[in-house]
Amino acid sequence: MHHSNTISAYILVLNSGSSSLKFSLYHQHSLELEWSGSITGIGDKQAKLLISDPAGKLLLSKKASYLNLEIAAAELINRLDSLSARFPIQHIGYRLVQGGPMHRMPEVINEDLIKVLESYTYLAPNHLPKEIQLIRIFQQSYQKAIHIACFDTYFHQNMPAVAKFYALPRAFRDQGLMRYGFHGLSYEYIIQELGSKTKDIEEKKIIIAHLGNGASMAAVSGGIGQETTMGMSPIGGLVMSTRSGDLDPGVSLFFLRKFQMTLAQLDELFSNSSGLKAIAGTGNMEELIHKRSADPQAQEAIDVFCYQAKRQIAALAAGLGGLDILIFTGGIGENAPLIREHICRDMLFMGIKLDPDLNQNSENIISTLDSTVSIQVIKTNEAWMIAKHIDHLTNTNLKN
User: Fold this and answer.
1) SS3 track for 44-71
2) What pLDDT does residue 399 have?
3) pLDDT tens, residue by residue, 288-325
4) Which CA distances in Å does 325 have to 203, 332, 348, 385?
5) DSSP string covering 237-290, please?
6) Within 13 Å, how many C-alpha atoms sit on residue 274's CB side?
7) Closest C-alpha among 32, 36, 78 to residue 53
8) What pTM value is reported for the model?
9) How far is CA 215 from CA 61, 82, 96, 169, 285, in A?
């Protein structure tokens, strides 16, 4: 195959959140970033469109009101159209929360896959409908491009049965009842980054803490995801910005019995009104850290977050039978030295010893020389991982 027509081909990566749309444009073969950006606050009066160059310099900042995803997507498509002569888009990659038990690997999107995704919206009602809507909008505008789905559950697909299944009747597994785990694209990226700097990564016992508005951890050994804190949905595991994390099943029964809550109310409660926000009135960790000395509830929220994180690290290490490397990533993991310090405090019994100065400067390695566990901070990049999957998929298809 001659590359004359693909030299200037581009990959567009899309990631839709509950009220945001993130996008990145990569060169098809070098996977170098051309620009990236986001539309945040979709549905609010105060929405914002930002586009930056690879160095992070702002190319465009615009305040506007995008009432819904469709209007936000139309704005992005407009921008891309005006640049299409310079950036012909050949592939569009989407981050999808999940595709049920059978769809984990990155794959080309066709009508059949969309039908499968639609049939599994009950597994991810807060994510899948918007993600499917985004695919449909971009398929309509980019009929010549190849559209590719990358699932956040892929990294965890080989978890052993002890970690994968609930102690619930087997009959329900066919309906997709199992522990999927999420943030897989982030974990995959981190393992790849770590592998480029660490010898014998296959022999290391690793815990990755992806701490952001959504937060989870994964335990990795033999290069494979062995266990993770999120379960069937991204609501489980750690206490998060607005999500409850793990609950005793009796809690759901309590709300159903005592308050006759509807499914929609329960979902709203556990997904959007719990976590840090429930304790301190805001789910924004930066704000909580800022207010903590004057506001006891902010301090309590931080304490709860770190306490749960600490317990999960110990549980995952027990599952791995030891721990060699602990990695912090995600918005909070990368940018909040205080949180890292709290989580690692009093963990010397596990060989975890943080160096306060290195931690304060957010160095790559933040453990002391005598810490038996290497503690590291690695910036994640889910969008690049999607671009890499697309490059790999298209190259493999060309060879076949």
Assistant:
1) CCCEEEEEECCCCCEEEEEEECCCCHHH
2) 59
3) 999 999 999 999 999 999 999 999 999 999 999 999 99
4) 11, 18, 14, 22
5) SS--SS---S--HHHHHHHHHHH---HHHHHHHHHHSSHHHHHHS---HHHHHH
6) 21
7) 36
8) 0.95
9) 28, 37, 17, 28, 12
Q: Does residue 7 surpass a pLDDT of 60?
A: no
What domains can you pick out in the chain, each with its CATH number?
A: 10-151 (3.30.420.40), 184-377 (3.30.420.40)
The answer to whether residue 152 is catalytic is yes
Structure tokens at 262: 């509807």
Q: Which of 44, 81, 152, 346 is catalytic?
A: 152
**Has residue 391 got a pLDDT over 70?**
yes
CA gap 298, 290 in Å, rounded: 9
Please list, residue by residue across 305-321, b when 16 or more beta carbons sit within 10 angstroms of its beta carbon and e when fewer do.
bbebbbebbeebbebbe
Rounded to 5°, the CA angle 16-20-24 comes to 60
**CA proximity to 155, closest of 243, 223, 85, 72:** 223
Chain CA centroid to CA 85, Å:
32
106 alpha carbon, distance to own chain's centre? 16
Report the distance separating Cα 98 and Cα 96, nearest Å.
Answer: 5
**Best CA proximity match to 19, nearest among 279, 236, 271, 291:** 271
